[in-house]
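Quick one, T. Sequence first:
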Amino acid sequence: MSYKAPSGDKFVVRLEDEKMPLTVAGKTVAHLGCSMEQELDRAGTYLKTCGSKITLWSKIDRTPLIRLEYDARMRGAPISHWQIHAERGAMSHLLGRAHAVDPNRVSRPHEFSSLHFPLGGERFRPCLEDMIQFLIEDCGIDSVSGWRSAVESGREKWRRIQLRSVVRDSPEDAASVLRHLGYTVAGPNPAVTDRLEPFRKW
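Structure tokens:
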């Protein structure tokens, strides 16, 4: 399901029922939510994702357990990150110590979910298929026959799309690698300027 965002310059894509039930032995134990915001790239040629949220929700108290988020406009945290809603005494101690020294360093020392674990930025972030395999392999969520092939195929497609985006961001690096492999590559005149922001941004 998709709809045009109120601003009118992007589209939002999400599951029709908002949250997909996840089962163990046929019984629902959690829900998975997924949404993406998409817009045209800077050249106005390709559709790009400018924001996405993949959230694992608890069925017990209807709160998030894990969030995989990407926001190209993010300034105060990594643009691609995990947020984990759990607690760990040793980590709270570390954060509490930093907070005691300077409250501006860590504003919420007892909330593990306030941490944003960086995940490779705009180009090298995980995809929905990574979350699905994690849920099946590590969390024991039910699966259907052929799931692995579908997940691997989707992941390959995602990574190839990202690879093409990386080449557009840094064409001379791509040309250099191709020349090293024996390809003949001629650049345009004038040369295309690298777009370094995706490689430098947290």
